[in-house]
Amino acid sequence: MPDPERPPQTDPAPPSGPAGSIGRAGFWLPLAALVVAAAGAAWLRFSLVEPAAVAQACATGSEQRDLLCSLRDAVISAFQQQRLSWSGLALATAGALLLWRGRSVGGVVALGFGLPLAAAGAILYGPEPGVAAVLGGVWVLSSCRRRDVAAEAAAMASASAEKPRA
Length: 166
Prior knowledge:
It is a single chain. This protein is mostly helical. It has one domain (about 25-60, about 65-160). It has helices at about 25-50, 50-60, 65-80, 85-100, 105-125, 125-160. Helix 1 packs antiparallel against helix 6 (about 125-160). The radius of gyration is 24 Å and the shape is elongated. It starts with about 20 loop residues before the first helix and ends with a helix. The model is unreliable at about 10-15 (pLDDT under 50).
């Protein structure tokens, strides 16, 4: 029975933004994958693709090409036409749309693959789509996390308001 001295409580309006609840792991795992992929792409770029000594060693046409030259060729073919960045942008966009529609697991998985691809693509000579994907994906993740924190705070506040005061 409602107390006549206290006005009825109304639920606060939920913050605007994506509808999916992602939790802490759904927020931190894609960001951790982004950092690891960016570090790996930086190592590939500055240790394998750009050094002139590696390029000359791989271009000599020796009988036996080692694993380093094969990896270098694979990296170069992957960033031609900004394929890494565009695929990262497509996955990050799909993840953002899934999160916005309330499909948390699919959105986090798509962002978990899209953000690292986009970061690697941005470092490996595809900055425009890669950076757009990283910024948009991180914005969506932070918006979902902010919404989750606000919902947790509202739940804690309503739970403490329901406790009888002695």
